[in-house]
Amino acid sequence: PFEDINDHWAKDDILAVYEKGLMNGTGSKNFSPELPLSRAMLVTIEPAPTGANPFTDLTEDWYKSAVIWANENGIVFGYGDGLFKPEDNITRQDVAVILARYMEYAGIEIPVTQEYRYFADEDEISGYAKNAVQLLNKLDVIRGVENDRIDPKGTATRAKIAAMLNRFLKAIEK
């Protein structure tokens, strides 16, 4: 359905998450695989909330209820002062944190017996994200980049998220 993914490395992952209804295109014939994904875009995959909106900066209806639902279920948090910053690009480490929190919320337990893996850029992983990065890397959801780096603060593009979501689904379906 997308003209801009024909030769893309994540084509199969993009099609898989599209067919499962997890991600849509950015237009009638485009997926925009290299477009950075925002915090709001990632959380729009979940159901409606039951509580009140704790954030003052949720201005768009297309993501508002998903952010509130994810917040009330402990999957995402704001920056403080009532701000969620929905348009901020999401980092690789924050994707790991959100997926790990979702696993906890859903009661998904996957035994991981591998040893702690040290990355060349280990010191760049924020403290709150270290366990999640390790878990999701060991589950082969978030893979490293060149030179044994994980690039924790690198921006996650739509293609990278599609690949991570597809691998995440495969990991939890086993």
Task: Walk me through what this model shows.
It is a single chain. This protein has 174 residues and is mostly helical. It contains 6 helices and no strands. The protein has helices spanning 11-19, 39-43, 61-72, 92-106, 130-138, 158-173. α1 (11-19) crosses α6 (158-173). The chain is globular, with a radius of gyration of 16 Å. The model has no long low-confidence stretch (mean pLDDT 91).
Radius of gyration: 16 Å
Query: How does the major sheet shape up?
Result: none
Q: In percent, how helical is the residue content?
A: 25-40%
Helix-and-strand structural type: mainly alpha
Q: Helical element count? A: 6
What is the number of E strands? 0
Mean pLDDT score: 91
Q: SSE string, helix = H, strand = E?
A: HHHHHH
Write the layout of secondary structure elements.
Blueprint: H1 11-19, H2 39-43, H3 61-72, H4 92-106, H5 130-138, H6 158-173
Helix pairs in contact: 1-6, 4-5
Offer a quick outline of the entry.
This protein has 174 residues and is an all-alpha fold.
